[in-house]
């Protein structure tokens, strides 16, 4: 199986072009687990398929390294946009990409025929409790809701970018309980579809530090949808403002994110190829 390994700020996936490779639907979860394994596979945070679509030039499907399928992936979208442009699946620099969470619009920034950075209009965040989804009384927004876990009460702001995120603000990102609270909250019953868990330290209205425990993948170097959720949560909590760009410092690098007055979240960041190759399937 031909693959391309790409990353967005260190959040790497094995990308397979299903315009050319034929994969069986029932094999996909196990294939994601296998290719992601750093010892017996290629090593990544998961598997992403670049597929034909009836509504856009390409469709993205995302599988975490535990084999679970997700509805969206910000770092993945930037890499899919780079791949689609550089492999001639699109001729324009701005185009649609279909995801399980709906279509998004990507714009590639090209230098000497190479896509270095990509801007994605991630659409509008989903804030209603039932749509996150999160258990509890119907509510239009979950902002700084007390959430007791592991005997500690944190304040959670819940945001979906097509995939669910629980955002908590901390005073020192280096002290964030990523390894302890992360896995406990990820599979807490109050999140029926589990949840991505983010910790944010506010530096200013234009700058935050960010760490993440991803649903289905654990700690990653970066999470694009999580960074978008972090900026939305910052605005909802009064730590940032709409229509003002926020620089999100992730372990693997920076994303520039704006929650616009029109409700759409714009994300700009790098997308890079690591290698191409042939994977010997088991
Ligand atoms: N773990 C996520 C999918 C990957 C998202 C992340 N890598 C990104 O860049 O947005 C989930 O299960 O919703």
Helices and strands, with pairings:
Blueprint: E1 2-8, E2 11-17, H1 28-36, E3 46-51, E4 58-64, E5 69-70, H2 74-86, E6 94-99, E7 102-111, E8 114-121, E9 142-149, E10 152-160, E11 164-169, H3 178-186, E12 196-204, E13 207-214, E14 218-219, H4 224-236, E15 246-250, E16 253-259, E17 265-270, E18 272-278
Parallel strand pairs: 2-3, 4-6, 11-12, 13-15
Antiparallel strand pairs: 1-2, 1-18, 3-4, 4-5, 6-7, 7-8, 8-17, 9-10, 10-11, 12-13, 13-14, 15-16, 16-17
The protein binds 2,6-diaminopimelic acid.
Description:
This protein is an alpha+beta fold. The protein folds into 2 domains: 2-119 and 269-278, Diaminopimelate Epimerase, Chain A, domain 1 (Roll); 129-263, Roll (Diaminopimelate Epimerase, Chain A, domain 1), CATH 3.10.310. The protein is 16% helix and 43% strand. A hairpin with a 2-residue loop joins β12 and β13. The radius of gyration is 18 Å and the shape is globular. The model has no long low-confidence stretch (mean pLDDT 97). Residues 11, 62, 64, 70, 73-76, 163, 196, 214-217, 220, 223-226 line the site of 2,6-diaminopimelic acid. Catalyzes the stereoinversion of LL-2,6-diaminopimelate (L,L-DAP) to meso-diaminopimelate (meso-DAP), a precursor of L-lysine and an essential component of the bacterial peptidoglycan. Homodimer. Keywords: Amino-acid biosynthesis, Cytoplasm, Isomerase, Lysine biosynthesis. Its EC number is 5.1.1.7.
């Amino acid at each position: 199986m031909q693959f391309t390994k790409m990353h967005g700020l260190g959040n790497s996936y094995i990308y397979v072009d299903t315009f050319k490779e034929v994969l069986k639907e029932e094999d996909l979860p196990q294939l994601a687990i296998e290719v992601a394994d750093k010892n017996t596979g290629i090593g990544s945070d998961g598997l992403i398929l670049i597929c034909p679509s009836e509504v856009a030039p390409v469709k993205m499907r995302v599988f975490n390294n535990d084999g679970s399928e997700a509805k969206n992936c910000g770092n993945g979208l930037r890499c899919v946009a780079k791949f689609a442009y550089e492999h001639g699946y699109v001729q324009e620099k701005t185009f649609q990409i279909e995801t399980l969470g709906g279509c998004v619009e990507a714009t590639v920034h090209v230098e000497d025929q190479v896509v270095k950075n990509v801007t994605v209009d991630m659409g509008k965040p989903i804030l209603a409790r039932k749509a996150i989804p999160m258990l509890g009384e119907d509510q239009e927004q979950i902002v700084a809701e007390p959430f007791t876990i592991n005997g500690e009460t944190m304040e959670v702001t819940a945001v979906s970018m097509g995939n669910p995120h629980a955002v908590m603000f901390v005073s020192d990102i280096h002290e964030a309980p990523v390894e302890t609270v992360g896995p406990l909250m990820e599979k807490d019953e109050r999140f029926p579809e589990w949840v991505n868990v983010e910790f944010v330290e506010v530096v200013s209205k234009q700058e935050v530090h960010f760490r993440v425990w991803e649903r289905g993948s654990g700690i990653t170097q970066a999470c694009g949808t999580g960074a978008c959720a972090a900026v939305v949560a910052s605005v909802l909590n009064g730590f940032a403002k709409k229509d003002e760009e926020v620089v999100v410092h992730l372990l693997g690098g920076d994303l520039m994110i704006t929650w616009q007055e029109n409700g759409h979240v714009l994300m700009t960041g790098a997308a890079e190829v690591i290698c191409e190759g042939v994977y010997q399937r088991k």
